């Protein structure tokens, strides 16, 4: 073997030494959190978050108080006060797509009437054109294997194309938000096409969006080489976009929008930070992990109908002996919900229909079994306070897989939808001229004296 490069040497020897120092001086005894009454993850053990703000955009409901006792209840989600089930039933029963209507509702506070909706859809359609040379200079250059990083990088670059980028007046932020809502599907899909071309050697496909198509239809049109899709496929993707659009101010990526916006920074900086948050596997990134976990379960569990075999394999995942060895069963559990996540409940009904359509009923059955068994295994091996159930990410990846969407686009699809919630929250933060967010950390460091370098 040749001489080791400086980097290799650093990695193998110095890095291990420095990393053990960093780990040692970063460790905090978990008992101190209860001793100093610090809420880990800014939540109490019942999942109740530290109240950090007020909002009128989304409401996440998971428990009631009965005689001073917290009682978990089936989860409920409201967008601008409207129950998510009512919203979904509304546009589906009228045989319409719902994402544009939901976007209008979340940003402007009321359901659009027919004219407002037509005009708004036309406005989004007219914004669905990236600035000249953006695809060539930003998206095609340095394609990355992770489309969340491609999105974040592209959104940060958008700053250079916006002559009024730093203006944080509401009018300008509304304009930037609508442009980002229109651009996100293009950047994500084209970013994927560039990756697929440069990394996988497949033909480069760039279909221009069509102004008359909905967001969901445009995604399928731009993604598929032949641009073909069925009504059921577009309806399912539209539903997924509606269900992911908003989740209150406290979820990790939206809270990031609030924190970063409160410093007074520009829209592109705030949204790229939220994208970084959403990518994480405990948040939006879980949807890819769920599908990878199911690939692993299908490979290792022989009888998909055998509850005991499934239980035993999930135990192995929980005890870090199988799958990615993080000890997490992805798609299960939630910071707030306990009995159920209403979005997973809605999804499940439609997923069953699509699975039947695609001849994947056995796989749907396996998902249902894991949904039922995983909470028992987690309850058995972890300290449970509020209970766990399937979250929105549990079925979303399965839907995307059935739609033939590549896994690289699963979390970006979450972002294509959640940009709406982030935008509404950024505007709410600006309108209310909030103070800069600045919580406290209690220092528990022992005092030490400065020692001159020769005497250490
Ligand atoms: C859109 C979204 O962001 S939805 C969430 C998507 N994320 C996932 O699906 C990843 C898997 N799930 C998880 O990691 C967690 O359930 C989270 C991050 C979502 C919530 O975590 P918490 O707020 O800690 O949940 P909760 O308080 O109910 O957990 C109680 C215990 O069960 C554990 N637990 C909860 N869910 C899981 C899970 N899916 N797998 C393994 N252990 C779990 C927690 O780690 C905790 O144990 P600990 O105290 O020893 O750390
Ligand atoms: O609320 C949360 O913590 C995570 C979540 O489900 C979301 O952001 O949709």
UniProtKB/TrEMBL annotation:
**Pathway(s) this gene product operates in, as recorded in its UniProt entry:** Carbohydrate metabolism; tricarboxylic acid cycle
UniProt keyword annotations, A-Z: Transferase
GO MF: citrate synthase activity
Matching InterPro entries: Citrate_synth-like_lrg_a-sub (IPR016142), Citrate_synth-like_sm_a-sub (IPR016143), Citrate_synthase (IPR002020), Citrate_synthase_bac-typ (IPR024176), Citrate_synthase_sf (IPR036969)
Q: Which residues form a coiled coil?
A: none
Q: Which GO terms describe its cellular component?
A: cytosol
A Pfam family of the record is: Citrate_synt
What does the entry give for GO biological process? Answer: carbohydrate metabolic process; tricarboxylic acid cycle
Enzymatic reactions = oxaloacetate + acetyl-CoA + H2O = citrate + CoA + H(+)
Please list the residues that make up the active site: 334, 393
Does the UniProt entry include the keyword rRNA-binding?
no
The entry assigns this protein to a family as follows: Belongs to the citrate synthase family.
Quote the protein name from its UniProt record.
Answer: Citrate synthase
Please report the organism this UniProt entry assigns to the protein: Natranaerovirga hydrolytica
